[in-house]
Write a structure and sequence with these properties.
Length: 362
């Protein structure tokens, strides 16, 4: 059996090693054929055989290395590059809760928070929708069919309506480039103008905030901002002074008039009563003014009607009721009180006074 030249075995091993390397560098290479010069082992000198064989192996190895490195370089070039980094922002809000509204102007603040992550940069704006009113000039909350006007502003002076930067409105602009990670909080300035107090209830609206990246980001987000206020079934009452002027007695009676002002929520029913006054022993049908020292009295009456026929008392119960009934409008209501001093009272000259308590029941 002919013997294998030792360098032929070396060439086979080199080919195997090259095949493994090429297989790692280029997965599609299933086999590698080593193209080396044909070597005849007959009477050729070993040194010549070694020289030719080593040249062939070096040539193949060099070629495969070139191919492996060329392929590696190609992979670096065509591998997909990572997408441009962008800012990713999420929104949260406290909402705007006005608390209790009773007719006078009310202001409050709320917040919208942007929480931005990522490694990119961006600029962004925050727009607010009109809410249920459909217009920016006067937003409104609602409770059933009753409404309550309000608005939202970008400034504490309540001069710039927060909208979509159109139609006289403005929007919140981050101003500077957003560089995550960062948390940005925008303040909402809410205002309810003075107005007639609507029917009692919980008033609500919802506006949508839209975050829009104007450059360098994919951070468009929307979020509902709840708007709430409470209108209680409350009333207030006040009264002016009733001044009869000079009373001369004799055959002429003296009259006077005062005004009670009631303010109740729209639709709120109420009753107003007047007590007997401060003189001991007086009643609602026989009130008395007295001098400062309390020694002299002057009788007078208070009435519901200008004809002085309906006595105004303080009974809120059924058949004996002698109080005034009313229904609130959400605004001040002026209710007249008619006073009369009957003629024929001859009393010591001086100043006579009384204090009557007004009770509003609702």
């Amino acid at each position: 059996m002919p013997q294998k030249h030792p360098l032929a075995s070396a060439r086979a091993l080199a080919g195997l090693a090259l095949l493994m390397f090429a297989g790692l560098a280029w997965a599609k290479v299933k086999s590698v054929a080593i193209a080396s010069p044909r070597v005849a082992f007959g009477n050729v000198s070993g040194s010549k055989c070694v020289s030719d064989l080593s040249d062939g192996i070096r040539g193949v190895v060099a070629a495969r290395w070139v191919r492996a490195f060329a392929l590696t370089a190609l992979l670096v070039v065509i591998a997909p590059t990572p997408a441009h980094a962008v800012a990713v922002c999420t929104l949260s809000t406290t909402g705007v809760s006005f608390g209790t509204f009773s007719g006078t102007a009310t202001t409050i603040t709320g917040t919208i928070t942007m929480n931005c992550t990522g490694t990119g940069t961006s600029t962004a704006t925050l727009d607010l929708s009109t809410g249920s009113s459909g217009v920016y000039t006067q937003r409104q909350m609602a409770s059933g069919t009753s409404t309550l006007a309000y608005n939202l502003y970008t400034d504490a002076a309540h001069t710039t309506i927060w909208g979509n930067n159109a139609g006289g409105t403005s929007h919140y602009n981050t101003g500077n480039t957003v560089k995550p990670p960062i948390v940005i909080t925008a303040t909402i300035y809410g205002s309810i103008p003075a107005q007639a107090t609507p029917a009692s209830g919980t008033y609500e609206d919802s506006v949508t905030v839209t975050l829009t990246c104007t450059a360098g980001g994919a951070c468009t987000q929307t979020l509902a901002v709840p708007i709430t206020a409470q209108v209680l079934g409350a009333c207030t009452v006040s009264a002016s002074e009733l001044n009869f002027g000079n009373y001369t007695g004799g055959a002429s009676l003296t009259t006077g008039q005062a005004t009670i002002t009631a303010h109740c929520a729209a639709g709120q029913t109420y009753l107003i009563g007047l007590n007997e006054g401060s003189y001991p022993g007086a009643t609602t049908t026989s009130r008395k003014m007295t001098t400062a020292d309390g020694t002299d009295t002057l009788s007078y009456g208070l009435y519901i009607d200008a004809a002085d026929t309906l006595n105004w008392g303080n009974s809120f119960n059924g058949a004996t009721q002698d109080v005034v009934e009313g229904v609130g409008t959400g605004s001040d209501q002026a209710i007249p009180v008619y006073g009369k001093i009957d003629a024929g009272q001859y009393v010591r000259p001086g100043q006579y006074e009384d204090t009557v308590l007004v009770t509003l029941q609702f």
